[in-house]
Write a structure and sequence with these properties.
Blueprint: H1 2-76, E1 88-90, E2 93-97, E3 102-106, E4 109-112, E5 118-120, E6 125-133, E7 138-144, E8 149-158, E9 167-168, E10 173-177, E11 190-197, E12 200-202
């Protein structure tokens, strides 16, 4: 009876081993299939990537053109100093106006000078306006430039013959500093210089090499 009992057990063990071996073979086959799939998929991705690289190359060619434009734009936006003697007495930011005895945002840079000192166009552009306001701002000359830029020159006397619509080049004399007057007269004779980008006042110091003068 013992031998007969062992035989079924041996058969069961053999069956288990066969099933286990079959499972291992199935798992191995699945692993091989997954590996091949991933590898082939990776090759496909690499091929697509190469295609993408080719397209990227085309885009790079286009971008190269755009980069050239950007470089040109940067060159066009290189300002020259609007005055010869660079003496900034008030910067862009919150400050106390001694004339009005008020604190507010000063949207420009004040360059001290003497009445009659020449004022230069900081950039190539067109005269957008020449406005006279003797009580507050004296005369203001506004130049329009490319790339959404405008420069504003206040407390000046416009150059003789300068008119709205005139084209000016960087460094051209567009005005002279006027005698102190208006809402900043206690600061003495000076040019109040502003820069606007797309209609918003920005710090002129970002465009001017004040330290290097």
């Amino acid at each position: 009876m013992n031998e007969q009992e062992h035989k079924p057990k041996n058969k069961k063990l053999l069956t288990y081993y066969l099933i286990l071996g079959a499972c291992i073979l199935v798992i191995a086959a699945i692993a091989v299939a997954v590996t091949l799939s991933v590898t082939l998929g990776g090759n496909d991705l690499t091929i697509d990537g190469e295609g993408g690289d080719t397209q990227t190359g085309d885009d790079d060619d286009k971008d190269d053109g755009n980069d050239d434009d950007v470089e040109d734009t940067t060159g066009d936006n290189t300002f020259t100093m609007p005055v010869t003697a660079v003496n900034a007495i008030n910067g862009y930011g919150f400050y106390h106006n001694t004339t009005l005895d008020k604190y507010y945002l000063h949207t420009g840079i004040d360059f001290a000078g003497t009445a009659g000192d020449e004022v230069y166009a900081a950039l190539d552009g067109t005269v957008e306006s020449i406005v006279s306001d003797p009580l507050l701002m004296g005369t203001t000359v506004t130049l329009a430039h490319e790339n959404g830029l405008k420069t504003v020159y206040t407390f000046v006397e416009a150059a003789e013959g300068l008119e709205t619509g005139d084209t000016v080049e960087k460094g051209d004399v567009i005005a002279t500093i006027a005698e102190a007057a208006g809402r900043e007269y206690k600061d003495g004779d000076h040019l109040h210089f502003e820069v606007f980008l797309n209609g918003e006042a920005v710090d002129p110091g970002e465009y001017l090499d004040i330290d290097g003068k």
